[in-house]
Design goal:
Length: 169
């Protein structure tokens, strides 16, 4: 199973914050005021805990990836339902082009489409499997390096998220 480079977890948080998780039922819940996915613009998804470093080409290493500023959010599907969401966002990261001798911060725009399936909804905690159907990260600070990052069109990029809806005041 291929691990998603990023996703909202966030796994989507956000979507796919736990990308490549063996069982979505094992994902700890993320406390949130709403179930909107991806998380609203004011929140972000950091997957640094999932991948410390990711080699994306000869001598190129990317780490500490943050996926934020999502342009579009949807209410996730009901139990056993499936929804697809397309969005633009921003990726912030630390990158090395000299095999890790030096690193610098970068930022690039993202376009993505993700499938969300509700597999459990009980006791205020909803669990979802996610699949990144497409994702392209290009432009921004990647332009000068001639780098584009994309989701594999031939391998599933799966993950999951669990959201615990907080009671309203």
């Amino acid at each position: 199973m291929k691990k998603t480079l990023f996703s909202v977890i966030l796994g989507c948080l956000i979507i796919s914050a736990y990308a490549g998780a063996a069982d979505p039922m094992d994902i700890p819940p993320f406390p949130a005021a709403s179930r909107l996915l991806p998380s609203p613009v004011s929140q972000d998804a950091s997957i640094g805990a999932v991948w410390q470093m990711y080699a994306i080409g000869p001598g190129i290493i990317i780490k500490d990836i943050r996926h934020l500023r999502f342009s579009n959010s949807i209410m996730p599907p009901v139990l056993n339902g499936i929804e697809t969401v397309s969005f633009n966002s921003q990726a912030d990261y630390i990158i090395s082009t000299d095999a890790g001798a030096t690193f610098h911060q970068g930022r690039a725009p993202v376009t993505a489409t993700e499938k969300i399936t509700c597999v459990s909804d009980s006791g205020g905690v909803a669990k979802y499997t996610t699949e990144m159907l497409s994702m392209n990260i290009s432009g921004g600070d990647l332009t000068s390096m001639g780098i584009m990052i994309r989701e594999s069109p031939t391998k599933a990029s799966v993950g999951g998220i669990a959201i615990e809806t907080l009671p309203s005041d």
